[in-house]
Specification:
The complex is a heterodimer of chains A (215) and B (254). In chain A, the strands form 2 sheets. In chain A, strands 2-1-3-4-12-11-10-7-8 form a 9-stranded mixed beta sheet. Chain A has a 3-stranded mixed beta sheet with strand order 5-6-9, with no helix packed on it. Chain A is an alpha/beta fold and 215 residues long. In chain A, 29% of the residues lie in helices and 28% in strands. Chain B contains 10 helices and 12 strands. The radius of gyration of chain B is 17 Å and the shape is globular. Classes of the chains: A alpha/beta (215), B alpha/beta (254).
């Protein structure tokens, strides 16, 4: 599978690339909206600030491309800040728009817990049986706490607890978005990315109706 | 709830893991990528690499070491040693570090911490603080030391911890210079003071000879515990440490 990793600026992509390569995927890092649109699978990586990433999407002209990809259920993996960008906005950057796919605002963890949330936290299904519970590595000061608002959109939701439950990961069609870093979450995280790759390679593309070949 | 992280530390010189007491008398302890992979398999939650090379050739090798270790592990990698600028940090991040640790350069120029946080995000910035205790009427105070303890700075370690947290540090790697390499246990008073003052996560370092020391550090306020020689020497496997911590009532990832 050929994967386009969106260059959002300062995001450190080495660990994501290493993870995907271990799983047999071919990666290229791109700033070209056409490549992002056409790639069999795309990754929106996530280190940096919400405002810088939001501005970057506009500079690249990739905002609509990514929105269409994700709303169309095409193979896309969003990591950490990449997941937060699916929201409408973030307390981290008032006025900076997200992709507006989730009807929520990203909010800062309250003062009663250490910020950033840094380390391994137990991830479990909010409902249903996805994902298999396991520990994931988090490094974030902001999160989506409104679990129900996300579920209403038809997403499967995984949660973890830090000052109460928050959205740890979501899945719909062939889109996977994780607040944690699956690429840094050991064998458990790798299997999550592996399952996403598996879906990406075999299920029909809802947007175009064609079946993308495994490569 | 976050689990207590167990972090093996690899002191690396010219591409090899070394170990010593109080930053002196370095001996070879193996290949960094092999050791890191073994520690991950045993259940390590993160790997820290500290480049202790004294030469610029050694530093160039460090980038290559980071690339090799990143390819070998699926857990977070924090790298420090000789980081003076955002460009130094960027090279390490591009090579596969997830977080970069800065020490004496931040003491010399605190604004570096803010610049790193602005550029790479708070979660990427670890400030390493080496603290030496005082005696007599100054007991309960700690001084920041740099250059492997050869230079005292006159800076109060607790004040400094609070300052780096405001500047944008995402975590403090706190080493007790007095305890490092002694096996006498972490300095729990120091940990408690820094954890309370900084309000950001703290990695305890220096002095562990077993899980009981680690449990004490966590109860004092540490979010993670770092050790080198007990793992390198095979005194404890990471998995064994985690089982004992779990038995002691701590949350760990097994």
């Amino acid at each position: 599978m050929d994967i386009a990793i969106v260059r959002t600026g300062v995001a450190n992509t080495a660990s994501v690339v290493a993870c995907l390569q271990r799983l047999g995927a071919k990666c290229r890092i791109t700033e070209d909206p056409r490549e992002i649109e056409q790639a069999a699978a795309a990754v929106l990586p996530g280190v940096g600030s919400f405002r810088a990433a939001s501005e970057r999407l506009d500079e690249l002209g990739a905002r609509e491309t990514l929105r269409d990809r994700i709303l169309g259920g095409r193979p896309t993996l969003c990591v950490c800040l990449g997941m937060q960008l699916l929201a409408e906005a973030s307390e981290e950057a008032p006025g900076a728009p997200g992709l507006g796919i989730l009807p929520v605002t990203v909010r800062r963890f309250p003062d009663r817990v250490k910020r950033p949330q840094l380390g391994w936290n137990l991830v479990r299904p909010a409902a249903g049986d996805w994902p298999e519970p396991g520990h994931a590595y988090f490094a974030n000061s902001y999160r989506v706490a409104d679990v129900e608002a996300v579920q209403v959109g038809g997403w499967e939701v995984a949660i973890a607890d830090h000052a109460g439950p928050f959205v740890a990961a979501i899945r719909k069609d062939r889109v996977l978005a994780c607040q944690f870093h699956p690429e840094l979450s050991g064998a458990w995280g790798e299997s999550l990315v592996g399952a996403w790759l598996g879906r990406a390679a075999t299920e029909p593309d809802k947007a175009t109706g064609r079946k993308e070949a495994r490569c | 709830m976050l689990t207590t992280r167990i972090i093996p530390c690899l002191d690396v010189d010219a591409g090899r893991v070394v170990k010593g007491v109080k930053f002196q008398n370095l001996r070879d302890a193996g290949d960094p990528a092999q050791l890191a992979a073994r520690y991950e398999a045993e259940g390590a939650d993160e790997i820290v690499i500290l480049d202790v090379s004294a030469t610029s050739e050694g530093r160039e090798t460090a980038v290559n070491t980071v690339e090799r270790v990143r390819a070998a592990i699926r857990i977070p990698l924090t790298v420090g040693g000789g980081v003076r600028t955002n460009d130094d940090a960027r090279l390490l991040l591009e090579a596969g570090a997830d977080r970069v640790s800065v020490n004496s350069a931040a003491v010399a120029e605190p604004a570096l911490v803010a610049r790193m946080a602005e550029r790479f995000g708070v979660q990427c910035v670890v400030v390493a603080i080496d603290a030496a205790g005082s005696s007599g009427r100054d007991v309960g105070r700690w001084e920041v030391v740099v250059k492997g303890g050869r230079e005292r700075t006159g800076i109060d370690a607790i004040v400094w911890a609070s300052q780096v947290a405001s500047l944008g540090a995402g975590e403090i790697l706190l080493t007790s210079f007095d305890r490092d390499g002694t096996g006498e246990g972490y300095d729990t008073d120091l940990i408690a003071a820094v954890s309370t003052a900084s309000k950001i996560p703290v990695i305890a370092s220096g002095g562990a000879s077993g899980p009981e020391h680690m449990a004490l550090a966590v109860r004092a306020g540490a979010d993670a515990v770092l050790a080198a020689s007990i793992f390198h020497d095979g005194v404890y496997a990471v998995a064994q440490v985690k089982r004992e911590l779990k038995d002691a009532g701590l949350e760990v990832r097994l």
